[in-house]
Write a structure and sequence with these properties.
The structure is a homodimer of 394-residue chains. Chain A is 77% helix and 0% strand. Chain A has 394 residues and is mostly helical. Chain A has a single domain, classed as Na+/H+ antiporter like fold (Up-down Bundle).
Chain lengths: 394, 394
């Protein structure tokens, strides 16, 4: 029982600090989400050490980010995603290629290790769609074409990142199976295509009648949660990130969203659970490693490459949307997140990368996470024409 | 990452089984909550052993029951509770005295141990308000006077149970401090009175203006969650059950409920989180200990005393409401829950009670939990006059 008392205290403190800092940042006209991350840095084991970084909070954070992507998915109709699909694919591929090459070459120059360079390159690949989606949602422009390209590309680059991870891990272990790479690719593409077909061909005709058969209260919302948990599990099981499944679950249900007020109901889960994700992200930041000048230098240079890689790669891919939209897409893809951290920690545990380079990757993840929302918000507020459903150039 | 895959699978399975069994029981015209508990028995370590009973799920269950009591509290106005306060107090006191004496005397007869008898008596005292509140909510009669007496008495008997626990633990350790007993009592009563004053004198004048100062989205709901987490922690910290704090948080906000649509927003949290509480309760049931005839006999007799104790004690206390309402209150107070289990496991760990008697207490908790909703539902459905806000005799 003492255990539960401490956990309730922690939860209260995390939630209070997240919302308090969020409120402060909102008043400073900055993204609330940065306030929530800073709340985590403050409370976490590396600074004030008030809240321990336990397995429980990590899982709670995972549930939070699942709810976040599910909510985003609910507002993303399949048709609109297909419309931007071609652009998103090009944005994703170029947005993977540029940062990988930048990270690979830079590490090769400073560390002379091919495997280490591969890992650092891989860690620079995956966009953290959670951060960007949150900023887009806070600014209420999820409906814009730019937002749709960013979300589509982020889902695709998550898939690519996991294939890159499979390749790099294979190289790290000294053995590389083409069969495994093919399998990951096949599973990921099959999963996404299957869900798109279900949502277009089956659900619209079947769901409204089926829902009437249930006697329980709030059946549509209960079944939506069930689908969200189920697809998050499936995505995680086939080695995709769980959040890809959560996003797909939301997208599959997007057509039914208005009729059954799913977004409205999911909003409460969002208010309660999502802040814990950003607080826990902040709790994992160790500021103390950056006391050595050469590590600070490497961290700054890698961060610069991480930003330039997405800006050039994704911007180039989004050029058909016009110069201004392309820049927005480029900036929107800059934040890295948990996938980058996971790849780096995997490399560390396999002995493929050094502790110093691990810290450098973590810095890059945090810096891109903190910087991108600031720039994105500033750019979007300066673009009053970027209203709901409108393309900047359309 | 494999860890999170398994957890997502477990969460999906727990939620799916809870809702599936709930739907089945709804169709059988039985309380959904029993379906959810049975889902837990099926999945748990003692039967199919699919979902492990980890610390994570126990905490998730605790958050679930906190949300449950918070939601109930939101629908319970302070004025109406004060109106039934006198009756609730008498119901609570008699409902503690009768089961304690029954349990004490029966254990003394079969086991001849005073300390053991004290522990068993104490374990029979506390009503599990969660179960009854859920049944009352499912039947949509939370507004009735009977429901208010039950909820008020359950909160009071939780306080008394914790004082009894303090006394019995003191006896078990061989030393008993009157100061400590006084302190627990003072803290509990002070906490509740303080909150009632805040909710009557401060909040109605202060809250609507204060809420306008916030810039964040959904500020009223966010602050309601904060209050719920905060008071749950405080209640837990002063050795009350956390759910007493959650209930009080809801009750304090009940006056603002309609204006800020708090119940409506909390409903989504309820739909997502509350089922995990009942599933985890079911997961803790070990059916295998009941293979010895004498243990089955003792379990049945103790269960009978547990039912009679509340029926007679609480029924007697509620007699001023009329015979029929008194019976409903008596039955509504029958379910025991986690407090009974905690007292029993404490006695076991202190060597004050035997393993067999521990199993007997667990059986009593489970049996009262499963039986009471069945009887309550049957009685309420047969009482069509028990409509919102109406007393059976008024």
């Amino acid at each position: 029982m003492e255990n539960i008392t401490k956990i309730l205290f922690d939860l209260f403190l995390m939630y209070a600090c997240a919302k308090g800092m969020g409120e402060l940042f909102e008043r400073l006209k900055q993204p609330q989400v940065i306030g929530e991350i800073i709340a985590g840095i403050l409370l976490g084991p590396y600074l004030l050490n008030i809240v321990p970084l336990t397995e429980f909070y990590k899982v709670l954070a995972e549930i939070g980010v699942i709810i976040l992507l599910f909510t985003i998915g609910l507002q993303t109709k399949v048709d609109e995603m297909i419309k931007v699909g071609g652009t998103a694919l090009v944005v994703a591929v170029l947005g993977v290629a540029f940062p990988f090459v930048f990270g690979y070459l830079y590490t090769l120059i400073i560390a002379h290790q091919t495997i280490e360079a591969m890992f650092i390159g891989a860690a620079m690949v995956a966009t953290s769609v959670g951060i960007t989606a949150r900023v887009l949602a806070d600014l209420k422009i999820l409906d814009s074409q730019v937002a749709k390209v960013i979300l589509g590309a982020a889902v695709i680059d998550d898939v690519i990142a996991l294939i890159v991870l499979a390749v790099v891990t294979g190289l790290g272990k000294g053995a590389l199976s083409y069969v495994k790479i093919g399998l990951v690719l096949l599973e990921a593409v099959g999963f996404i295509l299957f869900l798109i077909i279900i949502s277009k061909r089956v659900l619209p005709y079947f769901a409204p009648k089926a829902l009437n058969l249930f006697k329980m209260q709030n059946a549509p919302f209960v079944l939506a949660i069930l689908l969200c948990l189920g697809l998050s599990f499936v995505a995680s099981y086939i080695d995709l990130a769980a959040i890809v499944g959560a996003f797909m679950a939301g997208m599959v249900l997007a057509e039914l969203n208005l009729e059954f007020r799913l977004s409205l109901k999911a909003e409460s889960l969002y208010d309660f659970l999502v802040p814990f994700f950003f607080v826990v992200m902040g709790m994992q930041v160790d500021l103390s490693v950056f006391t050595h000048l050469n590590i600070i230098g490497a961290a700054l240079i890698l961060t610069l490459f991480a930003i330039l890689g997405k800006l050039l790669g994704c911007g180039l891919g989004a050029l058909p949307l016009g110069w201004r939209s392309a820049t927005l897409v480029g900036v929107g893809m800059v934040p890295r997140g948990e996938v980058g951290m996971i790849i780096a920690s995997l490399g560390l545990s396999m002995g493929a990368i050094s502790g110093d380079l691990y810290s450098v990757v973590i810095f890059m993840v945090v810096a891109t996470t903190l910087l991108a929302p600031l720039i994105l918000r500033r750019m979007i507020i300066k673009s009053p024409q970027l209203e709901k459903g409108k393309n900047l150039n359309g």
